[in-house]
């Protein structure tokens, strides 16, 4: 039986619940109003969002930064050659120049191959301006997005030739959940319009929900820009209150830097990784366990999806009068032995067929006579001397001098 004494307590509870509910509703309404206000200001151009203003700076950020700033300042000379590829091309790019120039190469800021430029100019007698989008983990879908982004910057940014180093891992990687999971995709969607592939690229319910939320909420869509503002003001406060110096550079000891890079690879300082000229024999690291996981299971749907992006890239290049040279990158026999049975030949045959149908050239440099084990730092990546050798062989193949020994040149003293 309820007495009059109990009623005030019940009324108090109801009032408390109503009070809390009203604050939740008010907070939600305020969030919606703020979101609409920011959408209006952003659409009108008052917020000044810029893809170069980010809270974390990955390798693709540094590549795009140089490319976009040069294009904006009209410093970009007519682009003769674009060099694309994953870490296989990346290691050759930095290692090759480190040996050739006998100078350390800053991986974060080094985006042009002096060795390739000089080799081509010596053979052709013409100047060659190149730019490299060779990035760790670059899938074929990433290469398509990067190439599309280049073309959108104007006629001066359209390369005459696209040299794209490929390997089986670029088409099928068990460690890759989807096209949208790469750092290149996440960054480039802020630079270029990816509406044509956005829906098909998102395969999981979580990714589809993320896309829906980005379209629904302006704040969620531009969360990276708001994180940048937070990071910017946090650094400002640290400098003013704590007297901190340059917070953009890495000052930690090497063993801490290595661990930090493993934990947060998408954030690279300007002095993060330096490739130095070799002194004595170069070490070989067995990375079989990593690639055993990457090749662990044959996934036809992923392989076919990435082949589809290669076809898109080839058709886009053809429509823009860019010659494409696909380069089958050197691998060790130990790495090839880790692949599912029949996968390598299937990969090569289907790539060869796509190249033929779309007027592209395919150069097969996966030849252990050309690249014996001493040119490798692990099962897939060439060491610095291997990087120099790679570009020498590549240029010879480009000029169809297969019977002649690779050209070796030294920079002018």
Structure write-up:
By secondary structure, the chain is an alpha/beta fold. It folds into two domains: about 40 residues; about 270 residues, Rossmann fold (3-Layer(aba) Sandwich), CATH 3.40.50.1110. The protein contains 16 helices and seven strands. Helix 3 packs across helix 16, helix 5 runs parallel beside helix 13 and helix 13 packs parallel to helix 15. The longest helix is centred in the first third of the chain and has 37 residues.
Radius of gyration: 26 Å
- Average pLDDT metric: 87
Order of helices and strands: HHEHEHEHEHHHHHHEHHEHHEH
Indicate the CATH class of the largest domain: Alpha Beta
* Main sheet summary: 5 strands, parallel
Tally of individual domains = 2
- Regions with pLDDT < 50 over 5+ consecutive residues? none
Class from secondary-structure proportions: alpha/beta
CATH H-tier superfamily of the largest domain: SGNH hydrolase
Tell me the β content.
Answer: 5-15%
CATH topology-level name of the largest domain: Rossmann fold
Shape type: globular
How many extended strands?
7
Cα-to-Cα separation, first versus last residue: 103 Å
Helix content: 40-55%
Helical run tally: 16
Strand order of the largest sheet: 3-1-4-6-7
The CATH architecture designation of the largest domain is 3-Layer(aba) Sandwich
Q: What is the topology?
A:
Layout: H1 7-43, H2 59-72, E1 81-85, H3 87-101, E2 105-106, H4 114-124, E3 130-134, H5 140-151, E4 161-166, H6 183-188, H7 195-201, H8 205-216, H9 218-221, H10 223-242, H11 254-263, E5 274-275, H12 288-294, H13 300-319, E6 323-328, H14 333-336, H15 343-357, E7 361-364, H16 384-398
Parallel strand pairs: 1-3, 1-4, 4-6, 6-7
Antiparallel strand pairs: 2-5
